[in-house]
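It would be a great kindness if you could assist me with a short task in structural biology. A protein sequence and the structure tokens that stand for its backbone fold form the material at issue. I should value your view on which stretches of the chain appear to form regular backbone elements. The record follows directly beneath this note.
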Amino acid sequence: MRQKKEREEMERKKLESERMEQERAEAERERLIEAAEKSKMELEMKKRKQLEQQQQSSAASSAEISAAKSQRERERLREQERRKRMMMKSQVDMGEQRQLFESFETGTY
């Protein structure tokens, strides 16, 4: 009878030990699942931030390109206006020169 009780006690302890081991394994499994989900969320956040930075960089780059184009356009217009003034001035100079020649030829200088 005593041996039977000892066996039952050992069997009960063995079952209790197995149950505790299963609980520990289940807790570890849940912890690993939570860690994986957290890691996945962090990775998604990191990707989202990188995408936002790329978009901001792209927008800044577009603004810089636009500003450079505007600057080149302003310079082109300035140069065009300068050439126009030079041509007008040379026409005035030629007109004055023609008048001087005419007055010299007529003797009315």
User: Anything to note?
Assistant: The chain has a mean pLDDT of 88. The chain is about 95% helix and 0% strand. Residues 2-106 form the longest helix (105 residues).
